[in-house]
Specification:
Layout (H helix, E strand, L loop, with lengths): L2 H20 L9 E7 L2 H8 L5 E9 L8 H6 L5 E8 L6 H9 L9 E2 L2 E2 L5 E5 L2 H18 L6 E4 L3 E3 L13 E4 L2 E4 H11 L2 H9 L9
Parallel strand pairs: 6-7
Antiparallel strand pairs: 1-3, 1-6, 2-3, 2-8, 4-5, 9-10
Helix pairs in contact: 4-5
């Protein structure tokens, strides 16, 4: 092989390698965010962080008019905000429709005045949608729940707006190790969470409604 031919072949190989290296690569699905309100955000966060495909869940406030609200403001009422969560998930591993399916079966969608022992507007249930596709999936989930339960569904479908993260001490509350004061005396935060959840009869009511279809009750 002549030196000239060798150089041409080497150049062709180099160009081919360059093209392959520069070609766009198939990347993993981008993380997406679902926003729902299901009563106490501690419980919703604890539930959805169990699901395969969910990367993390953030507690916060949305749906109202007050900027950067505090927990005291929201729980007192008048801000229009819901206690809600952002669910960061991988759509290659779990579909938005599956998240909504689990969500509707983790709440009491018949209750228009709050959830379980938590009463008031900030504890109502809602699905916050950002796209026409999300809205269609939410409408389907609500319609399916109405068909199964045979009653009017109180869970609202609302346009997503600003989401304000709750105070640090609310994040991953169910895992906390700090000592907090409860009605039953001082308890570790994680224990206090379980005490609260049991006292609120959350899982008991969800099982009454959904039976074995309840994905988180008692888990």
């Amino acid at each position: 092989m002549s030196l000239a031919n060798f150089k041409l072949i080497a150049l062709a190989v180099a160009i081919a390698i360059s093209l392959v290296a520069g070609a766009p690569r198939a990347s993993a699905a981008e993380t997406r965010v679902a926003v729902v309100a299901g009563g106490c955000f501690w419980c919703v966060e604890a539930d959805f962080e169990k699901l395969d495909g969910v990367k993390r869940v953030v507690s916060g406030y949305t749906g109202g008019t007050v900027k950067n609200p505090t927990y005291k403001q929201v729980s007192r009422g008048g801000t229009g905000h819901y206690e809600a969560v952002q669910i960061f998930y991988n759509p290659d591993r779990i579909a938005y429709a599956d998240l909504l399916h689990a969500f509707m079966r983790s709440i009491d969608p018949l209750d228009a005045g709050g959830q379980f022992c938590d009463r008031g507007d900030s504890y109502r249930t809602a699905i916050f949608v950002s796209t026409p596709k999300e809205k269609a999936e939410a409408q389907k989930a609500v319609a399916e729940s109405r068909s199964i339960l045979g009653k009017k569904i109180a869970t609202r479908i609302l346009e997503a707006g600003p989401f304000y993260e709750a105070e640090d001490y609310h994040q991953d509350y169910y895992k906390g190790r700090n000592i907090v004061l409860t009605r039953a005396g001082p308890k570790r935060q994680s224990t206090a969470y379980e005490f609260y959840r049991d006292a609120c009869r959350r899982d008991e009511r969800v099982r009454e409604l959904w039976g074995d279809a309840a994905p988180f009750a008692g888990s």
